[in-house]
Design goal:
Layout (H helix, E strand, L loop, with lengths): L9 E5 L5 H15 L6 H21 L5 E8 L2 E13 L3 E9 L8 H16 L5 E6 L3 H9 L3 E9 L6 E9 L5
Parallel strand pairs: 4-5
Antiparallel strand pairs: 1-2, 2-3, 3-4, 5-7, 6-7
Helix pairs in contact: 1-2
Length: about 180
């Protein structure tokens, strides 16, 4: 095998509260790989796992009608996840807050499938909204991925990092209403 994880059976489904540990671990690992040099090093090395565990336990403990969390489940292993919030912003619409795919599962269409499920859910529940997300300016692979899915670059701002202190340049990508 060439470093890729062989899939037994990928199932796309709504996240369960019991998925919080795996989602948190994947989220923290993704941050360590992608945001080294942008996030506080001590935070990434020593606090990210616990921080993401607290965040995902809280997010999945209570059902929120405006929150959509969907996972790619490979025989009980979370290979990727997406989190979106319907009608997050009156000007920009619904927010895709997270999309992460485990390293061994990347470039297999999982991110695209997760985004398609998200677009379908948002269109069904928030049909009058556009969709937007933030991506760090240095994360050019993610920017190319979103552009391939039809997103348009709507500009750059210096934003505080979500945790761990500091700030970084971020680009807002948008899908105008009814374009997804």
């Amino acid at each position: 095998m060439t470093g890729r994880t062989k899939s037994l059976r990928m199932i796309y489904r709504h996240a369960l509260e019991s998925d919080s540990d795996q989602i948190a671990l994947l989220h923290a690992q993704s941050w360590r790989m992608t945001y080294r040099g942008l996030f506080n090093e001590d935070f990434l090395d020593n606090q990210a796992d616990a921080d993401r565990q607290r965040a995902w336990s809280a997010r999945l403990a209570v059902t929120r009608p405006q929150q959509f969390v969907y996972v790619a489940d490979d025989g009980g292993k979370i290979a990727g996840f997406v989190c979106a919030y319907g009608h997050d912003n009156p000007d920009w619409g619904s927010l895709i807050d997270n999309l992460h795919v485990a390293t061994g599962y990347q470039r297999r269409g999982i991110g695209t499938q997760l985004m398609q499920h998200t677009f379908s859910w948002l269109q069904a529940h928030y049909p009058d909204d556009g969709i937007y997300l933030w991506v760090m300016a240095r994360n050019t692979p993610a920017q190319a991925f979103y552009q391939k899915l039809g997103a348009v670059d709507a500009g750059e701002v210096d934003k505080p990092n979500p945790v761990g202190g500091g700030s970084a340049l971020n680009r807002r990508y948008v899908w105008p209403k009814q374009s997804f």
